[in-house]
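Key result, reporting period 2: structure in, sequence out.
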C-alpha cells in the first residue's frame, strides 16, 4: 500500500511543478512557509546573480504558528543574511497570511519604495509552484513571473517538520484549491488532466483529506 500511495503522490507532486527555466530578473520573491529550505534556495538564487533584490513575504500562518516566534519573512531574512546576502538587498513583507496576501502586500511594499520589477522569480515549496503561479497571475497579471522551488525530489523531501503524510495531505488540498479557487477569483484557471484528478480522488478516498477546503 505504501508503494501505491507513493506512486499516486508522485503524480500530484509532478503536476504541481511548472519546470520553469530561470532567467536574470529584477526581484526574487520568496513566499513564506514552514519550510526554511525555501529561504535557503532563494538566497542561493540571489547569490548566483539571478536578481539584485531578494524579498521575503509572510507573517505567521496556520502551519507556522507553533514553529516560529516571529513572522516568516523575518525568519527567512535571517537565514539569507546567514548565507551571505547583504542586508541592503533584502526586503521584507511581514503581514500576509496567505498566498494572495503575499502577492498583494508585497506589491504595496515595493510601490512604497518605488520599486517596479518587470520580471519576478517566485520561490515556494515544490508542491506549491503551480498554486503560487496561478495566484500571482490573478493578482499581478502585468508582471512576468518565473516560479522556482528547492530542487528536492519527492522521495527526499519529507522531514521531521514535514512528514510524508502531512506533505501528501497538503498537496491534495492544494490541488483541490487549484480546481475551485478560480471561480472564487483567487487564481487563474489551470488545466488539470483527468489522470491527475482521478489520482486526487484516490488519495482522498485513502484518507488524505486533512487539508481540504471546508
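The corresponding designed sequence is given below.
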Amino acid at each position: 500500500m505504501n508503494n501505491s500511495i507513493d506512486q499516486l503522490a508522485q503524480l500530484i507532486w509532478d503536476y504541481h511543478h511548472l519546470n520553469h527555466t530561470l532567467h536574470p530578473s529584477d526581484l526574487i520573491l520568496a513566499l513564506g512557509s514552514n519550510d526554511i529550505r525555501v529561504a535557503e534556495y532563494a538566497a542561493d538564487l540571489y547569490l548566483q546573480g539571478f536578481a539584485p533584490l531578494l524579498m521575503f513575504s509572510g507573517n505567521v500562518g496556520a502551519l507556522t504558528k507553533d514553529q516560529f516566534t516571529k513572522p516568516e519573512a523575518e525568519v527567512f531574512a535571517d537565514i539569507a543574511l546567514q548565507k551571505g546576502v547583504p542586508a541592503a538587498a533584502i526586503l521584507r513583507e511581514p503581514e500576509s497570511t496567505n498566498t494572495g496576501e503575499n502577492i498583494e502586500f508585497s506589491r504595496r511594499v515595493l510601490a512604497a519604495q518605488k520599486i517596479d520589477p518587470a520580471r519576478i522569480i517566485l520561490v515556494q515549496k515544490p508542491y506549491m509552484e503551480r498554486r503560487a503561479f496561478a495566484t500571482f497571475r490573478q493578482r499581478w497579471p502585468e508582471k512576468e513571473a518565473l516560479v522556482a522551488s528547492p530542487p528536492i525530489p519527492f522521495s527526499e523531501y519529507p522531514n521531521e517538520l514535514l512528514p510524508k503524510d502531512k506533505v501528501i495531505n497538503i498537496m491534495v488540498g492544494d490541488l483541490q484549491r487549484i480546481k475551485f479557487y478560480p471561480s472564487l477569483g483567487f487564481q487563474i484557471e489551470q488545466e488539470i488532466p483527468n489522470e491527475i484528478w482521478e489520482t486526487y480522488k484516490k488519495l482522498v478516498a485513502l484518507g488524505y483529506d486533512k487539508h481540504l477546503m471546508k
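The beta strands are 27-31, 54-57, 90-93, 119-123, 144-148. The radius of gyration is 17 Å. This case is discussed further under Risks and Mitigation.
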